[in-house]
Amino acid sequence: MTAPVLEASFALNVALLLMLVVLAAAVVWTRSLLAAILLMSVYSLVSATWLMVMDAPDVAFTEAVVGAGISTIVALGAILLTRGEAVRVSWKRQVVPGLLAGLVGGLLIYAMSGLPDFGDPASPANSHVGRAYLETAKRDIGAPNVVTAVLGSYRGFDTLGETVVILAACIGVALMLGFGPRATLAPPAGAPGDHHVVLRVTAKMLVPLIILFALYVQFHGDLGAGGGFQAGVIAAVAIILHALVFGLRETTAAIPPQAARAVAALGVVVYAGVGIVCIVNGGGFLDYDHLLTPQIEAMIPAGLLGDPDKPHHWGQYFGILAIELGVLMTVSATMITIFYGFAGRTIDAIAAELRR
Questions:
Q1: Contact 334/166 with Cβ under 8 angstroms?
Q2: Given Cys at both, which of 10, 149, 176, 180 links 141, Cβ 3.0 to 4.6 Å?
Q3: Nearest-angstrom CA–CA distance, 47 and 54
Q4: 222, 148 in Cβ contact below 8 A?
Q5: Which residues partner with 85 through β-bridges?
Q6: Domain ranges of the chain
Q7: Among candidates 182, 189, 146, which has minimal Cα distance to 350?
Q8: Which pLDDT tens digits describe the chain residue by residue (356 residues)?
Q9: Is there a contact between 254 and 352 (Cβ–Cβ < 8 Å)?
């Protein structure tokens, strides 16, 4: 009974990979920027599907939300500031880049031939580090989701670095597109027509549901796919949807760009602050076992998480919860800042700025 299942899985993997190759070729071939952006969005969706088939739901979640969602919206906003088609380049100028790309691709394929077989239990990833995490995560961290234990605790310092990189991206976009009025310029708000009623009513229904789903993803990260990175992007989608339907001016009035940038920085402060508290209590940086003092841990009821007989790692639990909150703040605020930067710099706004 296993042979047909394996054959079906192999055929599905081949079909998805072929779709990715065709989509990548279409992106390179087309000269329409709008078509290229839409094709890249489809590419991200197919990639997310392939990652799910490969049993990587956390990565698939991120690819679908960031690749097919936020990246597409930002890219669509960016092409408003440029021409609709790419400039044609002589084929002679593409020979050297094409040869280099082919050389690098050939080297990667050659290196791939030396990798262990997929799912090989004797491979280094499965027999050393991966096995150690699977054996010790429940005892050391107590989180049912091993991915959360690795990213939030074992690799907590690396995840802090990733969060700082996201903040750096926020600062970089703000520096390029401006901190001042030119980053928030928008056409005057006009009177909404009757043809906007359906969109507005639908958006009012969807925005709270999207926020609720973001919170679910945030707090469900201990049990399954999810966490601060995915939840932050989903929360940003709710704000971006509001701006697309109700106008950028109304959204920036509710959530000013200055507040978004402040929240992005505050998320890193919250994350690093957890590590500092651990040091103050006598532990190492981001050593969550020293996050809470013994007196505070004694005050926490044993049945807080529903199982009074189960040993709980309260320091690990609240530490991961706090740093995931910091990640949520930085990611969501960064995505909103990037959207504000591109959406605010319309052609009319840039012309008005140049006239000044």
A1: yes
A2: 149
A3: 10
A4: yes
A5: 32
A6: 1-86, 145-356
A7: 182
A8: 455 555 777 888 889 999 999 999 999 888 888 888 899 999 999 999 988 888 888 788 888 888 888 788 778 777 776 776 777 777 788 889 889 989 999 999 899 888 888 777 778 777 777 788 888 888 888 877 888 888 888 989 999 999 999 999 888 888 877 655 555 444 444 444 445 788 888 888 999 999 999 999 888 876 677 788 889 989 998 998 898 888 888 898 899 988 999 999 999 999 999 999 999 998 899 999 888 888 887 787 776 666 666 667 888 888 999 999 999 999 999 989 888 887 766 544 544 544 55
A9: no
Task: Indicate the length of the chain as a whole number.
Answer: 356
Q: Which two tokens stand for residue 321?
A: 């919860």
Residue 173 tokens, joined: 């976009």
d(CA 165, CA 110): 32
Residue labelled with tokens 């599905």? 12
Residue 85 backbone dihedrals phi, psi, to 5 degrees:
-130, 150
Given a contact cutoff of 8 angstroms between Cβ atoms, the answer to whether 232 and 331 are in contact is yes
Up-side HSE of residue 320: CA atoms within 13 Å toward CB? 28
Tell me the C-alpha distance between 20 and 22, whole Å: 5
Neighbours of 209 (CB within 10 A): 10
pTM of the model: 0.78
